[in-house]
């Protein structure tokens, strides 16, 4: 059976569906395929087994394997993410490899961050070199990570906030009994 391929070049298309989709210098609304390759292009939503974006972007990507270089994506749900010189708003993956990139939220079983920045990283295991995060919640961390709030500090902050709220409620109850 011949492979169904869709090629899209400078234009705007609402929806593309095929086994293999190659998009160059175009924008599309929705893409559904086994394999999607984009270059200097944008898409609102991509659903595929494998997605590769070079110098482009997407609003939402759902794929088994997702490679993004020199581009950006709003949200990604994938088993395997490879992000290089790009940005992602929110990513949920089994394995995330982020190099020289920016991320809002990374939720992953295993996250490897090299010379990158992230607001929040939640992972079972983190390997890092030269990375900064605002919040890091991880079971195991290997390498250097600069963080404002890591797992022990988050637990302490939660405990402190719980005690403070409890005391305020207790004092409030005592004052209302006296009246």
Average pLDDT confidence is 88
Low-confidence stretches: none
Largest sheet, in brief, is: 10 strands, parallel
Taken in chain order, the helices and strands follow as: EEEEEEEEEEH
What is the end-to-end distance?
A: 84 Å
Structural class: alpha/beta
What is the total tally of β strands? 10
Shape annotation: elongated
Helix content: 10-25%
Number of helices: 1
- β-strand percent reads over 45%
Rg result: 22 Å
Keywords:
alpha/beta, 10 strands, 10-stranded parallel beta sheet, single chain, 16% helix, 179 residues, 1 helix
Can you describe this structure?
- The protein is of the alpha/beta class and 179 residues long.
- The protein has a domain at 1-63.
- The chain is built from 1 helix and 10 strands.
- It has one helix at residues 151-178; strands spanning 5-8, 12-17, 20-24, 27-39, 42-54, 57-69, 72-84, 87-99, 102-114, 117-149.
- Strands 1, 2, 3, 4, 5, 6, 7, 8, 9 and 10 form a 10-stranded parallel sheet that branches.
- The longest helix has 28 residues, at 151-178.
- 32% of the residues are buried.
- The model has no long low-confidence stretch (mean pLDDT 88).
Secondary structure layout plus pairing:
Layout: E1 5-8, E2 12-17, E3 20-24, E4 27-39, E5 42-54, E6 57-69, E7 72-84, E8 87-99, E9 102-114, E10 117-149, H1 151-178
Parallel strand pairs: 1-3, 2-4, 3-4, 4-5, 5-6, 6-7, 7-8, 8-9, 9-10
Summarize the entry for a quick read:
The protein has 179 residues and is α/β, with parallel strands linked by helices. It contains 1 helix and 10 strands, in the order E-E-E-E-E-E-E-E-E-E-H.
